[in-house]
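User: Hi! Is it possible to get a structure for several chains at once, not just one? Here's what I have:
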Amino acid sequence: EVQLVESGGGLVQPGRSLRLSCAASGFTFDDYAMHWVRQAPGKGLEWVSGISWNSGSIGYADSVKGRFTISRDNAKNSLYLQMNSLRAEDTALYYCAKGVTGVGGGYFDLWGRGTLVTVSS
Amino acid sequence: AIRMTQSPSSLSASTGDRVTITCRASQGISSYLAWYQQKPGKAPKLLIYAASTLQSGVPSRFSGSGSGTDFTLTISCLQSEDFATYYCQQYYSYPITFGQGTRLEIK
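Assistant: Yes, the chains can be modeled jointly so their relative placement is included. Here is the combined structure:
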């Protein structure tokens, strides 16, 4: 089955760190760029970060640049998001999304169900 | 960053109506625009890419048009399952940006 399954979310205090994971199955993972998109409670979609098939091209939203790091392990069909110095405004449902080409950018034709990150003391 | 502005922010309509949602980019993005549908508690679903190309499996009552800075999503004959929130997204350049969403409600 073609799917993306996120994990690693939870409740974390401001200033702490969290690492999200996304397990991909049912398609050739290393053919495609992958992305993280988040949605704060009751709000719209915000692209967070994207990574090309070979990790050669990476992009971040200004809101997370310098705090978040995206990575992937093609041998494990997995995508990651290391989130440091977390803030209350990072509270959101984090989706893993598949790009339609191997390079960065593009649109997203497959989404996971999301993992919830809550930043609060 | 390229700013995407959708209008209206919310819209009330009835089953069978024809509705149009507009998305405007703060600078030209050629046809690098996608539309998504999101229902409560669900992940977004891709409807249209390259401004006017229908994703496989999406009903033909959905259509998209536009290029440059102005784009539209049209639903020709609303069905009950179409009541949802719709987002446009530009992929012309990083950072990728979304519109704020248009909530389509039942009148």
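Chain A touches chain B at residues 35, 37, 44-47, 50, 59-62, 95, 100, 104-109, 111-114 (CB under 8 Å). The radius of gyration of chain A is 13 Å.

User: Great, thank you!
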